[in-house]
Amino acid sequence: MGQEPNEISSEFEADSKHAQILIGLGESLQRFDEVRDIIESTGVEILSVDYPSPGKVRFKLNVSDMRVIVLRLIEAGFSTIKGINAGKF
Question: What pTM was estimated for this model as a whole?
Answer without folding.
Answer: 0.84
